[in-house]
Amino acid sequence: MIELSRRRHSKRSRNQGGFTLIELIAVIVIIGAIGAVAAPKFIGLKTEAENRAATQAVSEGKNRLTNQYAIRLMTSESDANDLAGIIAAVSTDAGDYKLSFAVAASEVEITATGVQERGVSGQAKGKWKSP
Question: Would you list the domain boundaries of the chain?
Answer without folding.
Answer: 22-129
